[in-house]
Amino acid sequence: PGTITIQPNDFFAKSTTSIEQILRLKPILFNQVNTHLTQRIDDNNAYIAREIAITLVILLAISYLFTGFYISIKRVLADLSTASQNLSEGHLNSRIETSTKDELNNIIQSFNTVSDKFRSTIENVSISAQTVTQSSEKVLQSTHKTQQNISSQHSSIDQVATATNELSATASEVAQNATAAKDSVDNAYQEANKGKSIVNKTT
Fold it and tell me: What pTM value is reported for the model?
């Protein structure tokens, strides 16, 4: 048992048949392997091409976004520079209009808020300055009127002083005239007495 008995001629014939069958299968197997390898290579090439295409699309999208972001930042910075220059030159209505909804919009809104507060402060200062100017003008007018009143009072005082001096001079002159009249009366009285004495002596 377990022993195979075969004639040499049969073994040779069977071996030859098997080898011929194997040789006939070789091209078929080669073609199948070649087809399979080719398919795998094509699949790998397609995968690589797809990955490259996706990478290129991603790079293009990143480049587009970066370019747009750069242009947006550059435009916002230019607008900020122009608005700041206008504000420094006295254009208090300088504002930046934008339709963006990103962080740049926060910067722009902050600038607009600062501009509005600055304009409001300048307007309040201007109103206060006008009020101070009006008050100063009123004070100057009051001062001018006071000076006029003081000058008028000085003139009145000078007139009173002049009148007083004139009255004093008149009183002095009257006193002198009264003294002279008294002296004249005394002299006349004395002369009358002398005349009376002479008359008495003669009689």
Answer: 0.40
